[in-house]
Amino acid sequence: MSGELQPVILGADIGVYALARSFHEQYGVQSVVVAGAALGPVQHSRIVRHEIVADGHDPRQLVDRLLEVARHLPDRRLLLMANSDWLVRVVVQHREELEKFYAVPFLSQELLDQISDKATFAEICDRLGISVPRTIVQDFATGAADVAVDLEFPVIAKAASSADYQDVEFAGKKKVFEIATPAELAWLWGALRGAGFQGRFVVQELVPGDDTQMRSITAYVDSHGEITLLCSAHVLLEEHTPSGLGNPAAMITDRDDAMLDQARTFLAATGYRGFANFDVKVDPRSGQFRFFEVNPRIGRNNYYVTAAGANPTRFVVEDVVEGRSVPPVVVDREVLYAVVPHRLLLRYVRDPQLAARVRRLVKSKAVAHPLSYPGDLSPRRRLYILMALVNQVRKFRKYYPEVTSTGF
């Protein structure tokens, strides 16, 4: 590939802006963002150029626009990124068309189907000796009777594949459900059937512990199967809105080699390629790492990796655009990543040692907010960031007013 690098990103959320920011910091380039609307995080930005499609949920429209963008930029080295599971699926399913123009750094369709399904992910981890919560599967495609759930309540229920659940609508829909009784579970199964859901749901044992027991891992596996980037973070607080539950809102980058070794095992054994983002919880009863899922992409909160000194765009560009091997990096710089006000965060961090770490990082200015980019702070963006922080306070007051022992 010759010519100037041109990142093209599907989506319009905070993770897409964070990626565009990382590309701009590393290469000084403006990213093309293809979506159904210019949402707040990417609106009024100097570092993105918008390509708006009439229906951002229509895969054909998205792919056609990507092809159109490519035809208008014949001299650029085009790199395609996506930052939600269903958009990754769109790219992988249309890889043959897209690869004529773009570098497409994603895993194979076969592996995507296996690992993006939480039930199959659990089976793979079991086989590799990686601990996962005990998992029971309810399949809605077969018309079968409700599966027997012999777990202690409360339990956790969530779609096996978030891509299958994306467009399902019903009253009370959440990303993750905490189910207190068998009657509540029966209600959920009824609601899903009523909404015409045809996929699988998993019911899992609830691993105790608040948000501070959660961990995040970001990895990049190059086109030769070498794991060139590993970065882990200690989650301090997650989002608690029904649609955002489980997305980290604040974390401290924190190298944990024992946990990273398990991620390495998974990536090597499955023949993984591209970015991966693992959700892990430390079981306070045993200290064991319990792997919940792997997202087949870089992750919504990817900027914590850049903030800690390892801009992830460099790893993918040098690999699939420039065809060069990158010496592997394991990040060990400590930084506080937060999309909530620090004062609000400290209300939820009850562990005195963790709270002291937060204060120390704030005091030393080792902090990052993905939207707060000095190179892109027009008055309208400053206002948006301020309003987003105020909105976080309102959301936590409504959905998670006090810390709980389970994070629900």
From TrEMBL:
The keyword Plastid does not apply. Gene3D superfamilies: ATP-grasp fold, B domain (3.30.470.20). InterPro entries: ATP-grasp, CPAse_ATP-bd. Residues 122-321 form the ATP-grasp domain. Pfam families: CPSase_L_D2. Keywords: ATP-binding, Ligase, Nucleotide-binding. One of its GO terms (molecular function) is ligase activity. This is Carboxylate--amine ligase. It comes from Cellulomonas chitinilytica. The lineage of its organism: Bacteria, Bacillati, Actinomycetota, Actinomycetes, Micrococcales.
